Amino acid sequence: MKMKKLFLISILLVLLFACGNSSIDEANANDIALKYVQEGSNDSWYVSQTKSKGDNWLIHTKILGNNCIEKYIYIHKKSGSISDVRGGNEC
Questions:
Q1: How far apart are CA 25 and CA 76, in angstroms?
Q2: What phi and psi, each to the nearest 5 degrees, are found at residue 13?
Q3: Are 30 and 47 in contact (CB under 8 A)?
């Protein structure tokens, strides 16, 4: 009985470790941001700058050939979810 409990605990620890350490790297965050801004848009967006801000990636995106339209997208490093979007017409 003691071995069975030890075995189950070790399986749970392995699963927790495997699931808990996944995170979004900078390249994946850029991809998520570009997919977000390009959805339903005919414009060509690009990533101007990416910064690490605590638990989030801050991705600054712009439209190619138009410096007035830009968006700042915050993407959570652990989940990959978009936590905030700011910006618009800056001119």
A1: 10
A2: -65, -40
A3: yes
Written as six digits, the tokens of 8 are 């189950």
End-to-end CA, the chain: 70
22: left (phi over 0), alpha (psi -120 to 50) or beta: beta
pTM of the model: 0.73
Provide the token pair at 29. 């965050």
**Mean pLDDT over all residues of the chain?**
85
**Cα 82 to chain center, whole Å?**
6
Nearest to 57 by CA among 40, 71, 73, 41: 73
pLDDT at 8: 65
Distance, CA of 73 to chain centre: 9
Integer Rg of the chain from CA: 19
